[in-house]
Design brief:
Blueprint (H helix, E strand, L loop, with lengths): L3 H8 L6 E5 L6 E6 L3 H20 L2 H17 L1 H12 L8 H17 L5 E5 L4 E8 L2 E5 L7 H12 L3 E5 L5 H12 L7 E3 L4 H9 L5 E5 L2 H10 L6 E5 L4 E5 L5 H13 L9 E7 L3 H12 L20 H16 L3 E4 L15 E4 L6 H4 L6 E7 L2 H9 L3 E2 L1 E5 L3 H8 L6 E4 L14 E2 L2 E2 L4 H7 L1 E7 L1
Parallel strand pairs: 5-6, 5-8, 6-7, 8-9, 10-11, 10-16, 11-14, 13-14, 16-17
Antiparallel strand pairs: 1-2, 3-4, 4-20, 9-19, 12-13, 15-18
Helix pairs in contact: 1-4, 1-7, 2-8, 3-5, 3-7, 4-5, 4-7, 5-6, 10-11
């Protein structure tokens, strides 16, 4: 079992060129990671290709057993992984933070490892017979983001491995240590060459996407990068699962108790300090209860401590990197300049260490303001007033993205009727952003395509084959 210190030591290069990694909360040096080139990518792909046939040839039960061993290894080392994640990504150990992510990695490894995917008999009428199988695709390229660097990697790597594919994965350059640590632990119980890790920035990811030996790419990140992946993948018509940008809308109906929904609204928006693709990023509230909802969320937000992640009392942390800090700051300044009301926060200390942006609630904001129509990806909630529900639905749907959405009401049937009209891959009722390893998840419009999780997620990393006759 690793400690934080021994895990960091295990993944620290002993030779070759390296670069430094810093804690986003304090600026302190955490460690060093390798500097790799496209030659390293090519070598990893070759290893994955050479290993894939033997991995696919194993009975499904053996691959399941290997993945359950991986879950055991993650669980055994969860505290060390969580501390490393907290120090590198910034998220607190507690709340829905680093320990939450570490525990979720265990659960999201065990579920794909145990989900049955039997042969489907499509036709059997005495004259005709057809059955549907799911075969491995080959080598799957996995490119993961910095906001949930371990959990999103698990979401993509584990189903791919279960279905008999080998994997070449690139962690975000902002959270390379977390990716290396997780993959080191998983690889320790898998056959060599089944899971292969490369590190670096865009050129490394591009090499994965453009390789004719990569049969599928799974990517979580911006819509802009997703479009480039679509273009680059045409060489061998590789399969894609893309979970791209979101700007999730929530619609509050006029029959709710503001105090009763305040906590759900808060965590829907501020989980992971707002750095979540399917977080609640713009909230539409009817005029009749507008001030009550704004005040209820703001009062709760005041009680949520923000600070250095390894301090046990904190539940919110810094933004992970300077780039994202500047995006959030720019968008809040845009709201201020437009005359929006800053109910809470909006006053960062630019001279303090770390990329901390205070929890911010913005009210009475123009629905067309940049803070509403752009994805802020940080600890800011713009709350938009409406008088006509039809206007709220129209505003929720008018952006080009559609990852998730939510409806808040004391009447479930009324909420479901509104939810059916929201253009998003998932619409939650009286909650936002909660995911389940058995429930399929994917985006609408320019928030990407392809499904993850559950049986649908397993099928997405396999080639359907019909045997008929």
């Amino acid at each position: 079992m690793y400690t934080y210190e021994t895990l960091l030591e295990a993944i620290t290069p002993t030779s070759g060129e390296t670069r430094e990694v810093f804690n986003p909360a304090t600026g302190e040096l955490l460690g060093r990671v390798p500097v790799q080139t496209t030659a390293n990518v090519d070598a990893a792909i070759e290893k994955a290709v050479s290993t894939q046939a033997s991995w696919a040839a194993l009975p499904d039960e053996e691959r399941q057993a290997y993945l359950n061993k991986a879950a055991d290894a993650i669980e055994t080392n969860a505290e060390a992984l969580s501390e490393l994640l907290s120090r590198e990504q910034g998220k607190p150990l507690n709340g829905p933070g680093a320990r939450f992510e570490g525990g979720a990695c265990v659960a999201w490894t065990r579920v794909p490892a145990s989900t049955p995917l039997p042969v489907e008999v499509i036709v059997d009428d005495g004259e005709n017979y057809a059955e549907l199988h799911y075969r491995p695709l080959g080598v799957v390229g996995v490119i993961t983001p910095w906001n949930w660097p371990m959990l999103i990697a698990i979401w993509q790597m584990i189903p791919a491995l279960r279905m008999g594919n080998t994997v070449v994965t690139k962690p975000s350059e902002h959270t390379t240590l977390s990716g290396l640590a997780l993959n080191h632990i998983i690889s320790s119980v898998l056959p060599e060459g089944v899971l292969n890790t490369v590190v670096g920035a865009g050129d490394i990811g591009t090499r994965i996407v453009e390789s004719d030996q990569i049969d599928k790419v799974m990517f979580t990140g911006s819509t802009r990068t997703g479009k480039k992946i679509i273009e680059a993948s045409s060489g061998n018509i590789k399969r894609l699962t893309l979970e791209l940008g979101g700007n999730d809308a929530g619609i509050v109906l006029d029959d709710v108790d503001p105090q009763a929904i305040a906590e759900g609204l808060f965590w829907g928006a501020f989980i992971n300090t707002g750095q979540t693709c399917a977080a609640l990023k713009r909230l539409y509230v009817p005029d009749a209860i507008y001030d009550d909802v704004v005040n209820a969320v703001a009062e709760l937000a005041k009680t949520m401590p923000m600070g250095i992640g390894i301090d046990e009392k904190n539940v919110l942390g810094p933004l992970q990197n300077e780039m994202q800090y500047r995006v959030v700051d720019r968008l809040v300044e845009s709201a201020k300049a437009s005359g929006a009301r800053i109910v809470l926060g909006g006053n960062p200390d630019h001279d303090a260490p770390g990329y901390f942006y205070p929890t911010t609630i913005v009210a009475d904001i123009d629905p067309k303001n940049d803070l509403v129509i752009e994805e802020q990806f940080g600890p800011v909630m713009p709350i938009i007033r409406y008088t006509d529900l039809e206007d709220a639905i129209r505003m929720a749907n008018e952006l080009e993205v559609g990852l998730g959405g939510s409806v808040w009401s004391s009447d479930r049937e009324r909420a479901k009727a509104v939810a059916a009209r929201i253009e998003a891959g998932t619409v939650w009722i009286n909650q936002h952003g909660t995911v389940n390893p058995f429930v399929p998840f994917g985006g609408a419009k320019q928030s990407g395509y392809g499904l993850e999780f559950g049986v649908h997620g397993l099928k997405a990393v396999a080639q359907p084959q019909v045997i008929s006759g």
